[in-house]
User: What shape does this take?
Amino acid sequence: MNGQPASPTSLASAEEPTVFVVDDDASVRDALSNLFRSVGLRVAVFGSAHEFLQSKLPNVPSCLILDIRLPRLSGLDFQAELTKADIHIPIIFMTGHGDIPMTVRAMKAGAVDFLTKPFRDQDMLDAVTTAIERDRNSRDEAKVLSDLHALFAALTPRERQVMALVTAGLMNKQIAAEIGVAEITVKIHRGHIMRKMAAKSLPDLVRMAQMLGIGPGSAGSQT
Amino acid sequence: MANYLVLPMMRNLATKSWSAEQWLLGSIVLALGAAAGIWLVLGPAPAALPYLIGGALLTTSLVVAVVMMALVGRTQRRMEAVLHGRAKGEERAIAALRNSEAQWKEVFEHNPVMYFMVDATGTVLSVNTFGATQLGYTVDDLLGQSVLKVFAAEDQTLVQSNVAACLDKIGQTHSWEIRKVRKDGSLLWVRENAKAVRRLDNQLIVLIACEDITERKQAENALRQSQMYLAEAQRVSHTGSYGWHVGRREIIWSEETFRIFGLDKGPSVKFDTVMKRIHPDDRARVQQTLDRASRNLTDFEHAYRLLMPNGEVKYLHATSHAVTDALGGTEFVGAVTDVTARKEAESELHEAQTNLAHVTRVTALGELAASIAHEVNQPLSAVVTNAAACLRWLDREPPNVKEARGILGSIITDGNRAGEVIQRVRAMVNKTTDQKTPLDINQVIEEVVTLVQHELLSHRVSLLLELGPDLPLVVADRIQLQQVILNLIINGIEAMQSVTDGPRELVIRTRDEGARQIVVTVRDCGVGVATENADRLFDAFFTTKPSGMGMGLSICRSIVDAHGGRLSVTGDAGPGATFQFTLPLHQEESAG
Assistant: This one.
């Protein structure tokens, strides 16, 4: 049935959003699978956290539905494990009974939602939709950032230094004095930077610098 | 008295010398002769004829006198001889009488019986030495005294009435037992035989012979006291005794046995009367036991009930010991105890234990509440989610009936699963009385395991079931058995809570180890059992857990005991503890 874990290869090739379900109870897994399939979502189900970690995850917008009481590795521990492994996937927790301390912990750790079994199907679908949307956004942001990083990486060390000072609000004259070059040279660097970073304007460049986390203090270390 | 004076004189006269009469007669003749001679010699000379005649007469009278003297003497000697003979006979008779009297006197004085002769007013006329001595008096002390002197003040009326009774019926013997008082004040018990007789002088006297029965009386008292103690002990302990002579079909009961059976006291009891009192349901079994006993003539014991006329039921326990009597017959001597009160206490205790078992079972289930809730909630949420999914499949254009049908199948399965969990919990919460049925132990264990599944998971305990295949059935109460297993599992889980550096493994094993029993073992690898606690572990209210009530194992043991098995613990083999209990096999199973 559809409840069986989908093969990693098929997931890897898919572009559509996918919902991952981790629950030790086969009935619950199957039921969730039925629900998501009925609204046309792709689903992959796992009996344990271990199974999930073993599988190769597709690079598509996705979310994870976790039973908070899992055998061996609890849902919360699993959440921490994923964070540690730098896997950022929106998590929706399910619990058998309302457990406020657990809920608080889960939400603090970045859970998207927390549903008490048995839940309303619409609540679950809404939570999933929100989670996937959030994942899609963060994936887009991550894409932009990684592009920026690539552009930034193409700058020469001097250009990076100048960019930091420019985005910190220093004037050309001040920059020239700061790094000990002629003002005209600073201007040439600025031109190169604007072009290489595909910045439309100085504020655009400042926003990029912020995203990259570049400041005047960090200019040196950026080289 | 005159005889006494005469007899010695007669004896002195017994001589061959002449008697006075002879002397007298002789003297007369001599006197006459002398007178005639003097007259013839000195007087005027008579004629020759008269002289001759006078001389002849004189001579003749002399001759006659001599003859007469001889005759008188002979007669007297004859008389003397007769008298002498009589005197001898009398002397012998008197000697014999004297002898006899002395003998009887001896008997009278020293026979170990006290003899009293009193007159109608009770004055002592005679008493024997033995009698006086026994009472610490001399004979003279008592003679002429009132006989009441030797009786206690409170007994004197009785003495008087007894003497009066004797006087009332002269010649008839009366006897009684009474106390007498010695001179020193000490008491002795006597048995008196008395009879009034009229003496030759027409005086009424009472002859009394009394025998010292103090020792017998003391023995009797001791016996009576011992019997009283025995009877009292029997009454207090509700234990009666009995003797049953098999050959004579004779049954003898103690007072308490009569009381237990609610029958009137009698010298012996009829076998049928006893059987009628025995509860109809037990009668055949008792009859069987007695039949076997009378055949084998060996000791036996049995328990049975009595059904009293008022409908009351008594529980008895009887123990009989076979004794061979002097004639070679066998008699059973035994004791029968009314154990009704004990039985009632036992059944009350049992009820209390049942209640307590129920409470601890509910408490244990309370501890498992989260686990049980989860166990129900899982299928329930699956049902809700599936139902929603099903609707969505049906709402599609066109509806996907195939998917919907498949999901409905799942819904049914999950619904049933939730129902089963609830039924299982409800069964455990129910206050059930013993319902022993043949059971598959493995199935019982699996049912419990479903309830604790989540508890195991949340405590990260892995459960290993090593259930022996094709085990014979055991006879047990399913719920009670589940309670025992549940308790042992929860204990195991709690014992392993402190284990952080190794696996938390709980092993449940069932085996048929022969000896007509199944062995169930629950082994954990937790903190184990301290040796000094091993003995107390099963005591009520003994607990090593901060929040424990200490009833769990105590109840487990009483449940297992009630099933004829045994619950024990071993903690010495490595870390952890192993709890093990046995259950006897179902009879038919073991026979087949």
